[in-house]
Amino acid sequence: MRILVLGAGGVGGYFGGRLLEKGEDVTFLVRKKRQQQLAENGLVIKSIHGDVKLTPKTITTEDKVETFDLVIFSTKAYHLEASMKDVKAFVGEDTIILPLLNGMNHVKKIQDYFGEERVLGGLCFIETTLGDKGEVVQTSPIHEVVFGEFSNEHTNRIRRVNEVLQGTKASFRLSDFILRDMWHKYLFITVLSGVTTLMRSPIGPIREVENGESIIRQVFNEVAEVMHAVGAPLSEDIVDKHMNTVKKMTYTMKSSMQRDMEKGFFIEGEHLQGYLVQKAKKHDIHTPLLNLIYQNLKVYEERHSKKELS
After folding, report:
1. How far apart are CA 152 and CA 130, in angstroms?
2. To pair with 209 at 20 to 30 A between CA atoms, which of 60, 78, 150, 234?
3. Mapping DSSP to helix (H, G, I), strand (E, B) and coil, where does residue 294 land?
4. Where are the beta strands (DSSP E) in 83-216?
5. pLDDT tens-digit readout, 219-259
6. Which CATH number applies to 2-176?
7. Which CATH class is domain 181-305?
8. What is the DSSP string of 17-33?
9. pLDDT by residue (tens digit) across 31-46?
10. Which backbone phi and psi does 99 adopt, to 5 degrees?
């Protein structure tokens, strides 16, 4: 199976790299600057699960190559529109698309652009960043991709994808309830990114300060109420499960959004928290902490945009 990974950053570089390490036919669609960096330094993964240096195949949007069997979207939500246009020439009649973006707002956009029948459900759990020389630095125990058909069926194509994705140092798990799993991830990442960016802190100090856990739980409850209102298939005990996960997280765990803010990068606040704030207003749901988190992100974006223009 010919696999195209859109981007070679923290997510695409890591999971695509693990597939390449296994011996799968993986190509990375990258910008020219990243292509040159990979040509000079290789695709370097530094991970608690094992370091590796790889020689990846790369292409840019200007290259003319055959279409691919599987395209993995590992881009940020704010790059989605451009990314869909970039990858269009490499998508054939039978190409399968696996998006690993956070949230849910992107799903219909990708389905509308490429055709609903081509798109799988997917998500990932990982803590990564890029080092000074473009190396992928992965620091937490969890490094998992979850995927499946929205119909929950074990179709021939999903069995074929599952077979290809198995056997790497990362975890690729076929889900029987991918839509539920995606909403569960959306709930978790919204709260984790929200509280860590609001407090400018890793999860440990937030969790352990007086009233810290109760505040985290309140944000979970607010977000879950909004998700229930829009028909999300959440498990009844998901807030308790997510709180247990928060309690077990390492003291220094940061969300990727927090890391992006620390580096002065664009963030996915509109895609994650903003989408839910809009739904809360529509359904007249009171979400004071979610609104505060979103306002904090909007202030950052305002300051970031002025810095970009200066």
Report:
1. 34
2. 234
3. helix
4. 91-99, 121-130, 136-148, 171-174
5. 999 999 999 999 999 999 999 999 999 999 989 988 989 98
6. 3.40.50.720
7. mainly alpha
8. HHHHHHT-EEEEE--HH
9. 999 999 999 999 999 9
10. -85, 140
